[in-house]
Amino acid sequence: MAAEMGRMPFFYSPEGRLVQVDYALQAVSRGSTTIGLKTKDFALLSSQVKPTRPLLDAAEKVYVLDDHVGATGSGYIGDVTTLIDELRVEAQKHRLVYDTPIDVGTLSRHLSEYLHQLTMYAVRPLGASIILAGADELGVQLVQVDPSGTSFRGSGFAIGQGADDALDTVHKDYRPDLALEEAMALTTKAIEDLNGGKSVIEHGVVRADTKRFEHLVPTATG
After folding, report:
1. Which of 54, 154, 162, 166 has its CA 20 to 30 A from that of 199?
2. What's the alpha-carbon Rg for the chain, to the nearest Å?
């Protein structure tokens, strides 16, 4: 029965779970370890960069969506980039129509609705979870959206491989007044602890004072 339901995305399991969404969440859990962290002054995105095969260049992991907002994701790379493109188009459409930058809440709601639509019909839900970091009239924002379309706001998220352990590491030393260098060291440590201390990590940050998202150069550790 489980195998039959796996081929029918619009079916619930006997426990009332959406089978295909559960599969999508499993795909996210196999992706690169990825962390979002917010303080009163900035929001930081950090993601492990790892080539899928020897001699291949690693895929980009932190993306600029608009001047004031960026994103990262974990899961199937093709699904992540599809969602990034969708977010970029929505941000530009908002600027063209309203002549103002899109606020983070509106952008995250669009992503939630887009992903939720894929759970309602006989299509494959995307195996990707996205973390958005931006600055708008409400200040610095950090939002995670999972494959079901459910969104979460908070000061810290971890997705991908070893997400629970990475979040525990971050939580132990988190403070709302962390400096950027301290926050980067903390997310780096969380990723290193899961990967034997040998990682290339890509970062992006949006600051409350400038309201600009900056894509930082990947750093090698270990």
Report:
1. 154
2. 17
Asked if 6 and 23 touch (Cβ cutoff 8 Å), the reply is yes
Residue 126's closest CA among 91, 157, 84?
84
Please give the backbone phi and psi of residue 115, each rounded to the nearest 5 degrees, phi first: -70, -40
Domain coordinates in residue numbering, the chain? 2-221
Pairing of strands 128-136, 69-75: antiparallel
Task: Give the integer Cα–Cα distance in Å for 46 and 67.
Answer: 18
Asked if residue 51 lies in contact with residue 62, where contact means CB atoms within 8 angstroms, the answer is no
Task: Please give the Cα distance from 220 to 128 (Å, whole number).
Answer: 25
Hey, which residues does 46 pair with through a beta bridge? 35, 203
CA neighbor of 37 nearest in space, from 150, 177, 165, 148: 177
Domain made up of 2-221: CATH architecture: 4-Layer Sandwich (3.60)
Instruction: Reduce the DSSP state of residue 130 to 3 states and report it.
Output: strand
CA separation for the pair 125, 118 (Å, rounded): 5
Tell me the pTM: 0.91
